[in-house]
Fold this sequence. Notes:
Blueprint lengths: L7 H11 L8 H18 L8 E6 L6 E6 L7 E7 L4 E5 L3 E4 L7 E9 L10 E6 L6 E6 L6 E6 L7 E7 L4 E5 L3 E4 L7 E9 L10 E6 L20 H18 L18
Antiparallel strand pairs: 1-2, 2-5, 3-4, 3-6, 6-7, 8-9, 9-12, 10-11, 10-13, 13-14
Amino acid sequence: MDPMQVPRSQRTKTVNEGNPRPGSKGKQGVQSQKEKSRIQVQEHYPKMPGSITNLTASNITTSSLLLRWIAPSGNVGSYRVEVSGPTAQSLTVSTSSFQITGLIPGSNYSLQVVAVAADNVTVGASVSITTFTVPGPVINLTASNITTSSLLLSWTAPSGNVGSYRVEVSGPTAQSLTVSTSSVQITGLSPGSNYSLHVVAVAADNVTEGSPVSITTFTGFPVTARLQLLVQSSIEITDSVQEVFLQELNATIQNYIETMKFNIAVKGIRRKTN
């Protein structure tokens, strides 16, 4: 057929679909370019890493802890560890565990771990836990103002943070107390009895405890005994002789009554006169 006899609309359609003009792109050419661009974007931007699992803190002390986790599936370039609390830290590690140091005793810390892709930019979802460090031990634990049934227990607070103190009294009468101050009046004790007194610093979670510190002491006796001892001497008792005699007498009596758990002191010699 003579091309001049073909309708204009058919001639245009045939040219556009079958033979694009030089320098132009057909439908197939446009799709190929889009696919190529999509592949280039995927290659330039790595896939987001997955989230770590089983994040735990162990081996917790007053100033350190061991942080562990399980790596996500897929590829990971590194891990970003964020420590938030009285002392903050930002760390980048390549392994799935890390020892964190430089912490404050008895303090609450938030620990966050994020998986990072090899480009050091693309990150996964963060995973966090919170934990307390162990409080330090109390210092200078002493018992004073001791009577037949009570005593004053006092101590110096440890460095760092403390939520409360647990006081344990062991003896003929046992007690367990929780106080927020660094001293407590212990009452209801038995006279002339041996007591063991323990104090433990506790963190604000009421669970994490420091090392206990202990002392022992006796309560007082309810009576005071006076003993009169008659000593006969063939020589004159001078001040120097009296001093030596009293030292020896005190030592002898104390050794004799040591198992009775009380003290006795000879304070002087009174000369009998006719």
